[in-house]
Amino acid sequence: MENTTLKSKLLFAALAAAVFAPFAASFAGEVPPERLEARRQFADLKFGIFIHWGFYATYAQGEWYLERAGLRGEDYEHAANAFYPHDFDAMEWCKAFKSAGAKYVVFTSRHHDGFSMFGTKATDYNIVQKTPFRRDVVKELADACRACDLKLGLYYSLVDWHRPDYPTGCTTNARQWVAKDLENYNSYLAFMKQQLTELLTDYGDILCIWFDGEWDHKDPETKMPNMDWKYDEIYSLIHTLQPRCLVLNNHHHALRDGEDIYGVEREKKEDGKDQAFTLEPGHPSELCDTMVNGAFGFKVTDTDWKTSDEIRAMLKRANGRGMNLLINIAPRADGKLPDEAMKILAELAAGEK
After folding, report:
1. What is the pLDDT of residues 159-183, one digit of tens each?
2. Has residue 235 been placed in a domain?
3. What range does the domain containing 50 cover?
4. How does strand 323-329 pair with strand 151-157?
5. In what order do the strands lie in the sheet with 285-290?
């Protein structure tokens, strides 16, 4: 009798452990095996292409033009009605990236100006509804990436200079025309969640979500965020929708639970020596930089291009540190990659010295 009871208790305990183990692992901050494997596979990719593109390319003054020029939002936004990238060809882009040795692409689904480059239902401020182009660029790029065996990651701004419910941070010029009495982070969070759900539901497997903009709400001395972004809710949503999708948050300090990739923005020199990187054990890392030594978005006066040899050397340094290199290209308003960028990609493909 006692042995039977003991066996029953042990069997019940084993069943309970099996049922509740995933939840216990989640609460303990343990990472599911499929995400650990996704991290390992990301580290093996080594080289990716970053794409910053929005209707700001029409101004040809970089992705921060709205903030830095001090324009009124409604004046800046008129350019969306003139944004018609008739030469955009996602397959042409992806073939050039693939030939150059890239294994993945990260594309700006929405930048700080709040304009979405995909057919979102969360706002009409997007390329399908507010431009005469009326095509879903993210959809076309996702299809081309799959055809070319490239992984697709999506940059997503935490900042929004357009929406009245986004709480104003340190970037104030672009926000000076927005109704401050409508700021409401819970409302803005719901908007972001809706868009992230669309991106992770309608566009196939996504390699990573690449967040940017935490710096808009930070303590000026400690450089740490002074606003609760509710990352636990955001990251949980991402990993629930796509368990293998990784999270990179461009904040430049220690990773939090739910973050997978340690990101570094731009390679720098310190006292003439290579910058020292403090990487996170057990996490892949990525260095992002630009082909042209200026803005990330298209800027017609940026002509200080890195050479293909310089990019090869940067890739070698990054990989030698155990990091991927994500090199940025800014397409023109017509949808073409700049001629110099195409030349560099061709040289990387040819292996010219």
Report:
1. 999 999 999 999 999 999 999 999 9
2. yes
3. 37-350
4. unpaired
5. 246-249, 208-212, 151-157, 104-110, 47-51, 323-329, 285-290, 262-265
Banded pLDDT at 10 (limits 50, 70, 90): very low
In a domain, 13, yes or no: no
Any idea of the CA torsion for 343, 349, 351, 353, to the nearest 10 degrees?
10
Least Cα distance to 85 among 121, 118, 123, 134 occurs for 134
Cα–Cα separations (whole angstroms), residue 205 to 44, 214, 290? 18, 25, 26
Buried b (16+ CB within 10 A) or exposed e, 340-349: ebbebbebbb
10: three-class secondary structure by DSSP: helix
pLDDT at 39 exceeding the cut of 50: yes
Q: What domain count does the chain have?
A: 1
Query: Domain of 186: which CATH number?
Result: 3.20.20.80
Is 23 within a domain? no
Where do the H-state alpha helices sit in the chain?
2-27, 33-43, 65-69, 73-76, 90-99, 127-130, 137-147, 185-202, 231-241, 308-320, 339-350
Beta carbons of 118 and 71 less than 8 angstroms apart: no
Cα separation, 39 vs 37, in Å, equals: 5
User: Do 262 and 208 meet the contact criterion of CB atoms below 8 Å apart?
Assistant: no
Rounded CA gap, 292 and 312, in Å? 14
Would you state the pLDDT for residue 25? 35
The two three-digit tokens of residue 46, written as one number: 């080594």
- The conformational region for residue 316 under phi > 0 = left, psi -120 to 50 = alpha, else beta, is alpha
CB distance 42 to 207 below 8 Å = yes
In this structure, what are the phi and psi dihedrals at residue 69, rounded to the nearest 5 degrees? -85, -15
Q: If pLDDT is split at 50, 70 and 90, which confidence band does 277 have?
A: low
| Domain assignment present for 163 | yes
